[in-house]
Description:
This protein is α+β, with helices and mostly antiparallel strands. The chain has helices at 12-17, 44-47, 51-64, 80-83, 117-125; strands at residues 19-25, 31-37, 71-77, 88-93, 96-99, 113-116, 132-139. 29% of the residues are buried. Mean pLDDT is 75; it is low at 1-14 and 22-27. It has one domain (12-139). Strands 6-5-4-3-7 form a 5-stranded antiparallel β-sheet, sandwiched between helices. Helices cover 26% and strands 31% of the residues.
Amino acid sequence: xFTGPMTASLPAWHTDALAVTFTDTGPGGVAYDExxxxxxxxxxxLAWGNCDTVSYEIIAELxxxxxxxxxxxxVVPDDFIAAGVNFHTALIENDLVIDYTIRQFGDDFPFPFxxxxxxxxxxxxATGRTVWSVDNTEYM
Length: 140
């Protein structure tokens, strides 16, 4: 059992082992009908459209490990068509955003992305698709 500090940055062995089941052909064009790991989301096409599922699976795991101060933060685009999605969700803890699916916006993002809310929103906005703004922050 993991006994280190509880942060939204999962221990490496969890990132490789935590399975998230997607049964869909994602907007990125990758067909899958099996569990993928959180680490698989470092591949942008698997991350695409799965931010909500990944974030809530990680929250459940971290709460099981004892972290009760974890939540989700959601941004919405000004232009849904340009964005290709109608929202994006990541983890938030102690005013830091941890985003395991940010590579759906570009493969050059770090995995996972960790930064302030402003850093996160600015990074997504820098992709140039549309302007994103914070819609909701919810602690579980």
